[in-house]
Design brief:
Blueprint: E1 3-10, E2 13-17, E3 34-40, E4 44-51, E5 58-61, E6 64-66, H1 68-85, E7 90-97, H2 107-122, H3 129-139, H4 143-146, E8 151-154, E9 164-168, E10 176-181, H5 191-201, H6 205-225, H7 228-247, H8 256-270, E11 275-279, E12 285-289, H9 294-301, E13 309-315, E14 320-321, H10 324-327
Helix pairs in contact: 1-2, 1-3, 2-3, 6-7
């Protein structure tokens, strides 16, 4: 064979209802259900080229050649595609993020979503979005959600298959997400390692398994009802519960700047501005706010010590294949 290539882009998502922990057994299925929003304005772009001349898979991430665990995870995903497509060529992966990588901004979600879609299409497979999502989820559970746009649910818990499905379109809720970037560095503990330790030693983990599905159901119902305030209220509760569970295991992702930004979110709420905070496995605070209040909230958050910059995002579309002309820019 000569070469087969495709380029895909995908966006990170933030979980409004968090998952933390994995169900025992194979398949990389979350221990609890979660519900996220896919974000426009932050993008991973990935090109996969199967080339018979390559001796092994190659990975370039943000312009740097990368091996070790990241390459191993990418190769494992490619092996599934190669097996189904009946090809044995190694692949060259070129991927870039236009936002901080491996620092709690869901770069693994958008990264594996883009990789899965590009690999499947480069191999000539006509898989459904649900099947591509399942492939991505096996590498990074949250990546399954980034194949879809808008509000997306990822099932989890006993008997779950780890399937992601659309809950509502991007326009279902008047929502802006202000991402308060507090560092450009990678986090010290990966989400995978943090979850495993939490499951082993956190005294709060059993309580988390009971509470998380209830919070997810509340958020799902509020999204479908267009109830911004309830979505924000329970999203903040979900984030704090997740981090409390992790902290009890000695896993601390938040920084002083994270807590200062959260304090400002709560101060704005006390002043009558409907703002809510959520935090993934990293130090960046995400402020949930209505579109009409975004400018005022952004101005106040920009003054918080330790907030380096603010990315203003909104619910966006799922992963897609880029036309050749667009991919080559």
């Amino acid at each position: 064979m000569s070469t087969l290539s495709a380029t895909a882009c995908a966006h990170p998502n933030i979980a409004l209802a968090k998952y933390w922990g994995k169900r025992e057994g194979e398949g990389n299925v979350p221990a609890v259900p979660s519900l996220s929003v896919t974000l426009a304005g932050m993008t991973t772009t990935t090109t996969v080229t199967f080339d018979g001349a390559l001796a092994s898979d190659e990975l370039s991430l943000n312009g740097a050649s990368t091996d070790g665990r990241p390459l191993a995870r990418a190769s494992a995903l490619l092996d599934v595609v190669r097996r189904d497509a009946g090809i044995d060529a190694r692949a060259r992966i070129v991927s870039a993020n236009d936002f901080p990588t491996a620092s709690g901004l869901a770069s693994s979600a958008s990264g594996f979503a883009a990789l899965a879609l590009a690999a499947v299409r480069a191999a000539g497979l006509d898989w459904s979005v649900t099947r591509v999502s399942d492939l991505a989820r096996r590498s990074s559970a949250s990546a399954g959600r980034s194949l879809f746009g808008g509000f997306v649910e990822l099932d989890g818990g006993d008997g779950a298959t780890g399937t992601s499905a659309s809950v509502a379109s991007p326009s279902a809720l008047d929502l802006k997400v202000l991402v308060c970037v507090t560092t450009e560095a990678a986090k010290a503990t990966s989400s995978t390692d943090g979850m495993l330790l939490t499951q082993r030693v956190s005294p709060y983990y059993p309580a988390w398994l009971q509470e998380a599905p209830r919070l997810c159901a509340k958020i799902r119902a509020a999204i479908l009802a267009g109830d911004f305030s309830t979505v924000g209220e329970y999203a903040e509760k979900s984030a704090l519960a997740m981090h409390a569970c992790a902290m009890a295991a000695g896993i601390v992702y938040v920084s002083g700047a994270t807590l200062a930004a959260l304090a400002e979110v709560r101060a704005m709420r006390a002043d009558g501005l409907q703002t809510y905070g959520t935090i993934d496995a990293g130090p960046h605070l995400k402020c949930l706010v209505r579109g009409s209040d975004a400018a005022a909230a952004k101005e106040r958050l920009a003054r918080v010590p330790g907030v380096l910059r603010i990315l203003e995002t909104s619910p966006g579309d799922g992963a897609r294949i880029l036309p050749l002309a667009e991919a080559s820019r």
